[in-house]
Amino acid sequence: MQFHFVVKGMKTEDRNSANLPKVRIAVLGRINVGKSAVTVRYLTRRYIGEYRSNTDLLYRQTVTINNTPVEVEIIDVSGDSRDASFPTEQVQWADGCLIVYSITDKKSFNYAMDTLDNLQKLRPNSLPVTLMANKADLEHLREVMKDEGRSAALQNGCSFFEVSVAENSEDLYTAFEMLLNESRCQQGNNKTRKFSVSKMFGTLIGGGNSKEQKMAQGGTVVVCHKSDLHKTRVLKRRQNFTATASL
Predict the structure, then answer these.
(1) Residue 98 — pLDDT band, cuts 50, 70, 90?
(2) CA angle (125 as vertex; 121, 129 as ends), nearest 5
(3) How far, rounded to the nearest angstrom, does the alpha carbon of residue 18 sit from its chain's CA centroid?
(4) How are strands ordered across the β-sheet holding 211-214?
(5) Under 8 Å between Cβ of 228 and 206
(6) Residue 87 burial (CB < 10 Å; 0-12/13-18/19+)?
(7) Can you tell me the distance from the alpha carbon of 46 to that of 166, in angstroms, rounded to the nearest whole number?
(8) Residue 70 and residue 65: Cα distance in Å, rounded?
(9) What is the pLDDT of residues 9-19, one digit of tens each?
(10) Cβ distance 159 to 172 under 8 Å?
């Protein structure tokens, strides 16, 4: 599957979304574990089969969390094995992380374990994390037992779900909703006042000159670069500082 991008300006609904609370999620995992399929399935209820990208993609859509509309940004971090570096920029940007591995690929499980270790070093106890085992429909090709995933999640203090994106597992939606809700609660614990950075500085990701593809249910997907994430993280810190100083 290939994305075909079109250039479009910032519509009225995009400007209105700048006033909504925002939650950012980073989806991490090795190549071919189904990160894109998992993300698109959650946001659109649709299934994509074969899909591969050597660049990060940012999905943006408004969802409802506890009866409140929230702008959700989900970055699908490329798991290309040629890039072995830990995605520090993406993790620093995120409010929560979803780590995906395939039950048919032991290497992807080991990659997920390394990612959990690195997360603990980079942001110990400050980042909600969910571990997700995908491709549960391929039981005959299983290389990772369910108990291995559950045990790893327990040891790292994160939630665990085993799903099949192809079969549209209900637990896939539960996993995202729990992670988004936990991330929102974590934001609330920071005790910062609502402050619209996008309204003051403009949208840095997916703005007027960005190439976006419209998704079902009104969302968009854009190619994302680390420099964009760095800019939004700097603004996020400025937001927190300004809001705290005004208390």
Answers:
(1) very high
(2) 90
(3) 18
(4) 6-7, 211-214, 220-224, 56-65, 68-76, 22-28, 96-102, 129-134, 159-162
(5) no
(6) buried
(7) 9
(8) 7
(9) 334 445 455 68
(10) no
